[in-house]
Structure formats: structure tokens, C-alpha cells
Amino acid sequence: MGLSAVPPEISVPAVVDYHDEVTWQSLDDMLVVSRVSGAHSAHFSWRSRESGWAKLMLVCHVTAGSVRITDARNDVVIGPGTICVRDFGGDWRYTTGDATTSRILIFPRQALSGVSFERLSSFVTVSSFSPKARLLLAQLDALGDTAGRLTAKAAKRARNSTLHLIRGILDAELSSQARSCHMRSRAERYIDRNLRDPSLDPRSIAKGLGVSLRTLHRAFAESDESVMAYVRRRRLDHARIEMATHDSSVTITYLAARWQFADAAHFSRAFRQRFGLTPTQYRKMDRNTRLRAQGLDAI
User: Fold this and answer.
1) Burial, 19: exposed, middle or buried (Cβ in 10 Å; 0-12, 13-18, 19+)?
2) pTM above 0.85, yes or no
């Protein structure tokens, strides 16, 4: 591959019998690596990324032991039965368990230009039992047996066919993300139409959308907000709009009941947690100030 990047910061345990066996073969600009190692960790910092690692992609299949990958958004342990695909961008670390065996592909990110990869997270995991993953694993088995004996032209073709299989995995993930995003939008529209319904809960929402409860929860899983947290947030938003556009005859108790809070005290606590003010404090603000705070024009 011609990589001349600064290596990651590697930490190994101070033991006499630490072992790390690495064999690799090249397929054009792709490295096919087999590794058996003891417990260790590596940190890809800005220094190593800016020297060239950020331009690379990684596919890792753990066949024994475990690899833990940690970054700003993920803290995932990968074991047998899982394939991970990630780029080397961002600040991230991997930590292996003892006696970990893995198969690794490293190649330039631009080699996947046929996939809209910018729409994907920098870290994707898939089950090695999925059809597309099984095809890739069969390819890796074949490469392990033949890569060292391929001509330059055959190696190029093997590299291209391997990339097509990786694209298949990422395309499937893209489709899954697109479906999840569409479902999230449908769920939000349904919730917003039914905010005052006292029976609004995940089960009734899933039934109204004609999907399973699991599908509904999965649509919200990528954010830090659950289905009912979204419901509560939208109810508080609408209650605040009413407070900004109506006079003081609309009581806190009335708003709490109208927007399905157990009582005025519960409503006040939730309101303060979301907006930093109690309903009473908010109401004491100048009316035009309240409207401007919500992006509304004074009437």
C-alpha cells in the first residue's frame, strides 16, 4: 500500500510471554492481515491520523477472543460472529482481549467511492451470519489460501471483487438507515398529531403506524431520545407555546392536564428541566420576550 504514516500509540502489558503474530499479503492497494495477539491496546490520535491513517478503511473479523472499539460515540466489544467496518478518522482506540485471532483488511477509503459512505457512521457492525457477510468471509477464506500465488492482474481482480462485497454490506446498512430515518419521520408526525391523547405510548404508536414495537424503538435508537422522551418534549413545546400566546387565565394546572402530565408539580419539574425556568418564572417574562425566545413574532 505504500503507507508511510505515523503508527498509532500502542500499549502492551509488561509480561515476558506477550505474543503478537502478524502475517500479511497485498492485493494491489489492499492489505490482507491475519493476526494472533495477546491483550494490548492502540490509540489512533490526531498525530497518526494526519500522517495518513485517516485516508484508510478497516474491515475486522474476530474469530477468537475479542476487540473493544471506543470512540466519542461508541464503546463496543466485537467477538466471534461480528464484522466491523470503520474508517481511521476520529479519535479512537481499540483494545484486544488475550489470545485474540482476527482477520483484517486495510485499504484506501477512496476505493469505496461507489458507496455514499459520507452518509454512514464511521463505525458499522454486522452479523457474520448475514448473507452478504458470509460471502465476504468466504472471499477472505479464499484469499488466505491463494493471495500469495496470484499474478498482479489476478490480485487486482481479487481486490475489486472483495471491495464489491464490502460495498454490498455498506449498501445494506445504508438501506437500513434510510428505512429507519423514514420510520422516525413517520413516528414523529403521528406523535405530533396525537399529543393530547392520554393513551399515547409506544404500543399505541406502533399499532397506529402498522409496525412492530421493536421497529419503532429501533427508529429512535440512534439518538439519545426514547420514544416517550420525544413525546414529553413535544408536549412541553406545545405547552410553552400556549403560555406565550395566551393570557394568565390559562392556568398551570390546566396546561398540565391538557398536555397529559400527572399534575401541576410534575409539569413544572419537567418544564424547568427542559427550559431552565419554572412555568411561573417563564410567565413573568415580558410577552414579546417569550415570543422571541420561541422564534415567534409578536401578535
Assistant:
1) exposed
2) no
